[in-house]
Write a structure and sequence with these properties.
Radius of gyration: 29 Å
Structural class: mainly alpha
Shape: rod-shaped
Number of helices: 2
Number of strands: 3
Distance between the termini: 92 Å
Helix content: 40-55%
Largest sheet: 3 strands, antiparallel
Oligomer: single chain
Order of helices and strands: HHEEE
């Protein structure tokens, strides 16, 4: 009969299961962070569009207060330019979620964002959510 070999205690370390759990948790956290960072970018684009539309809407209302007999359908961008709060050199435009710059139609009240074909652009799909539109 042989005597068993003396065993040395194993140095402290991580098991494969522990390392797999930590790596899985890190991947889940990174995925969540990436998802929310893209959602923040979408929200910011909507907020910027909403702020631009609100300033155009206020300019439109102010212009109509100064010219009460003018119908909304005959208002031009040049008419509203002096009434915009920041006094820009050119009429503001809005960048969509697809990074395409779009115009604002001022001959309707409230103003709306339109694409090159003249159709209303509102990626939120809701006409009164205060993103991509002036709202109710």
């Amino acid at each position: 009969m042989t005597s068993p070999r003396p065993t040395k205690p194993l140095p402290p370390g991580f098991t494969l299961i522990e390392m797999s759990l930590v790596i899985g948790l890190l991947i889940a956290l990174m995925s969540t962070g990436i998802f929310f960072s893209s959602a923040v970018g979408t929200w910011k684009a909507g907020r910027d569009a909403s702020e631009t539309l609100r300033s155009v809407y206020v300019a439109q209302r102010t212009y109509l207060a100064d010219h009460p007999t003018t119908p909304v359908s005959s208002i031009s961008r040049a008419d509203l330019l002096p009434y915009l709060p920041s006094k820009p050199a050119s009429f503001p435009q809005v960048e969509g979620l697809d990074s395409v710059t779009r115009d604002i139609k001022v001959t309707v009240s409230p103003p709306v964002i339109i694409d090159t074909t003249g159709t209303v652009y509102d990626p939120s799909g809701k006409p009164n959510d205060s993103l991509w539109d002036v709202g109710e």
